[in-house]
Amino acid sequence: MTPQVIQRWIDYIGNHDPAVLDELLAEDAVFYSPAVFTPQQGRAKTATYLNAAAKVFGGTDFRYVEQWYGENSAILEFTATLDGIVVDGIDMIHWDADGRIVSFKVMIRPLKGLQAVIPRMAELLAG
Amino acid sequence: MTPQVIQRWIDYIGNHDPAVLDELLAEDAVFYSPAVFTPQQGRAKTATYLNAAAKVFGGTDFRYVEQWYGENSAILEFTATLDGIVVDGIDMIHWDADGRIVSFKVMIRPLKGLQAVIPRMAELLAG
After folding, report:
1. Are B116 and A120 in contact (CB under 8 A)?
2. Is B64 on the interface with A (CB under 8 A)?
3. Do A109 and B107 make contact, defined as CB atoms within 8 angstroms?
4. Using 50, 70 and 90 to split pLDDT, how confident is the model at B55?
5. How far apart are CA A87 and CA A101, in angstroms?
6. CB burial string B90-120: b at 16+ within 10 A, e below
7. A53 in Cβ contact with A106 (< 8 Å)
8. Cβ separation of B107 and A90 shorter than 8 Å?
9. pLDDT tens-digit readout, B10-45
10. What is the DSSP letter of B39?
């Protein structure tokens, strides 16, 4: 029952293959960060943020714990632990008729969890 | 198609009637704040937080913009503006076989939005 685009996303989380991610993202994909209001526009920027997130959570106990599906969208709730800090969040994913992701929004709770993620993302995005 | 429990919740957001909220919450309801990790246990504490949130967002342009439904759960995405700061969040609601809310989790982005909500909630919860 898992939509193919979501299964491919979950596979990407497992293998971190940037080529798989590029294939998954629409050219006009937009990334909405949990930290900053301004959206990141386009496939390249969206991929940069998602690759960084995959690196931040790679090697942690990151896992999806619950899913909700709409016609062309999904909510995936995840949990992970970063140096003892619990991160509880959601990925809100919308896709187009071709099964490509057009919008990827992340929200994270609690404040300490978000504060644990922000500097780790910033370091990778600056690198 | 909106589950009755969610329609009653949306009605509560409109009328702020604490008696309606009490009726909606299971005795062992748990509230998961966007700010703090530790859950708030029980109907009374959950109601206190939800009443405070309803007050914080009452009189703003708060509105639900998208919904996802599971068998006994829903995700409601909302947006609001607090003194010019955009708040984008989700309510993650689970209910029991009697249609009473057993779990209410909130996540908010971006960081500035969360930072706008926290002191307003704290002021009401202290009062």
Report:
1. no
2. no
3. yes
4. very high
5. 24
6. bbbbbbeeeebbbbbbbbbbbbbbbebbbeb
7. yes
8. yes
9. 999 988 888 899 999 999 999 999 999 999 999 999
10. P
